[in-house]
Amino acid sequence: MTDTPFRFPSDDELMAGPNAFDDDSADSADSADETATRKSVGSADVAADVDLDADGFPVLPGDDSDGAGDGEDEDAVLPASARVEIVVPDVPEGYTAGFACLVGRPNAGKSTLTNAMVGQKVAIMSDRPQTTRHNVRGVVHRETSQLVLVDTPGLHRPKTLLGKRLNDLVRETLLDVDVIAFCVPADEKVGPGDRYIARDLAELRKPVVAVVTKSDTVSREALAAQLLAVDALGDWADIVPVSAKRHEQVDVLEDVLIGYLPPSPPLYPTGEITDEPQAVMIGELVREAALEGVRDELPHSLAVVVDEVLDPRRDATSSAVKGRGQRLQVRVSLVVERDSQKAIIIGKGGSRLKEIGVNARKGIEKLLGRKVYLDLHVRTAKDWQSDPKALAKLGF
């Protein structure tokens, strides 16, 4: 069979079609036929009786594409709905912006360092492993740059499905950042976990800055020895010792990370320090309070879910808002894996749960800038860390 070259129909052939513009029956056509005689241009429907250019395309008001302009300002003839104001942010020449990921094994000081660089608390902190369970973004604003920090869960050898998913989350994040800060604590010897992470980072072909955290916890001699040990782990772009608690070398680390960012306008509005949703931050503050003073096994088994947030100013007609004045009402569930853990959280006569509520409420009120009524409940979801359905319900 001989292939027939494809060609577009001529204007005359189009006009002679079943929906010809001069068809006398068009006046009596129903709405479906009328729709068929319209051509869509962008988001606007153009009636079939509009003017066409030489190529058969509709000519919009003020269109000077044929080169024979009428001399009028295009903005003056375009309808208001067709004009879009483009606002270009005023940033200095050479402005840079991008993402830096903080990575390391659990309890390496990543969250404390993130808060120190941002200058305000955006990530919860605890001396318990696996405190961070999702990526937390904090924004550092400079006059000529914007550094977006991504605090990640600690990389570890997973024993549950939750642990595997957290590791996967970290590895996915590493692919989408501009520079990586590999955190190794000064007060712990370099171990197999650090070497494992270092081998993974070497394959990414991204600039990696080795950060020796908690430098205030050791002597100068011990710090020097740790710097040499970290240097031997890999080929790093830079090595920076820092103390987030004393704010030593934090500005230096910021300068180093910013040096690897690409030219870009700001990625976040001025003054915005995190993109964490309010409910997520509330839940994290409750979990932070619950992690203090509990057994080693419990942090891994504890999840927090914000079930409801009611504002009497906005939800005054809701039947759930009763006699709490103008306080924001927050209902939160603490989820554990076994009934024995439930008893730990509640404490004798509910004393432990009350303490958690008092401490968490202080943090939430500081975050939101208003009074809060916090309603805590503890429930059991057996082996939720290894149950795909339970993990989905809990947001993992």
Distance between the termini: 58 Å
Q: Give the SSE order as H and E letters.
A: HHEEHEHEEHEHEHEHHHEEHHEH
What fraction strand?
15-25%
List the strand order in the largest sheet: 4-5-3-6-7-8
Helix content: 25-40%
Q: Can you count the helices?
A: 13
Average pLDDT number: 75
The major β-sheet equals: 6 strands, mixed
Rough outline: globular
**What Rg is obtained from the alpha carbons, in whole angstroms?**
30 Å
Explain briefly what this protein structure is.
The protein is α/β, with parallel strands linked by helices. 30% of the residues lie in helices and 18% in strands.
Keywords:
396 residues, 11 strands, 30% helix, three-stranded mixed sheet, alpha/beta, six-stranded mixed sheet, globular, 13 helices, single chain
What would you say this structure looks like, in words?
With 396 residues, the protein is α/β, with parallel strands linked by helices. It contains 13 helices and eleven strands. Strand 6, helix 6 (192-202) and strand 7 (208-213) form a beta-alpha-beta unit. The radius of gyration is 30 Å and the shape is globular. Mean pLDDT is 75; it is low at 19-50, 60-76 and 126-134.
